[in-house]
Amino acid sequence: MTENTPDKLHFTVLKLETVEMLDVRNGGIYVDATLGLGGHAEAILQANDEVRLMGIDQDGEALRFARERLQPFEGRTTFVSSNFSEIRNVLHEAKAGEVDGIVADLGVSSLQLDSDERGFSFRFDAPLDMRMDASSEGPMASELLAELSEVEIADIIYRHGEERFSRRIARWIVERREGGTPIRTTKELADLVARAVRRKPKDKIHPATRTFQALRIAVNRELEILEQFLIDGIDSLKTDGRFAVITFHSLEDRIVKQTFQRLAGKCFCPPRMPKCICGAVKKIEIVTRKPIVPGDDEIQQNPRSRSAKLRVVRRIADQ
Known about the structure:
With 319 residues, the protein is α/β, with parallel strands linked by helices. It is built from 13 helices and 7 strands. It has 2 domains: 6-111 and 222-315, Vaccinia Virus protein VP39 (Rossmann fold), CATH 3.40.50.150; 119-220, Putative methyltransferase TM0872, insert domain (DNA polymerase, domain 1, Orthogonal Bundle).
């Protein structure tokens, strides 16, 4: 890639650990369901000269960079513009059949975070967009804040951001909107949240961090589609195929952990239930009993990796 590409500032989180846990097999077909800038995909292709890889991403700009990065592997790569939640349809349309492994890095890419136009970060004053697919017709974050009620905004910020000042933030947003100046930019939102929350100087994160996270999750429906993606991904694997998922916050990780546990046969029904109704069925074996996390060296090199957790499962024969 050229010197001016984002990859020069991008670090692929838990790259070596992910490829090792995928147990890349000769002649296998692998899917990077969140291709991004192609770091995990490149590592998989480098691990075995006989593997083929399908990269899925809904961000057109990311796909362009990934195509350039993976040019040396032309003939072994396929690129699809889609959301990871469409993995079942993508594989069906490609007549790919069952695959040997899937990786999904659920973090926001550096390409998006470091963009001064996409509205993901309060480090830049930009339109409050936050759509991972900038060409989609879905609502931008600014449109949600302009249309939703105070209760709905507070609920999003609390559920998706675990922000204890969610009601106050929502009230301030609506009061500003009713005063004729709705929030339209990242700076306007970050400044409002900073005034509403008034965190202590010793706090390590910006007071708007949780609110921005919550809105990004809501705009892209990240948690709504995650569980079904995990189920569809497992169903798309060959026996002994592996599924590696990297999460970056507790809400995602909880969904991944519990979904994998249920698909490994753990029942979450109350003890006195006469029969299981939670959908527990043994389709997988959990490979990582505890999530794999970055080491000190990786965190020092890439502070954004500090909250990453890698969980891996193996598809087993139908019981």
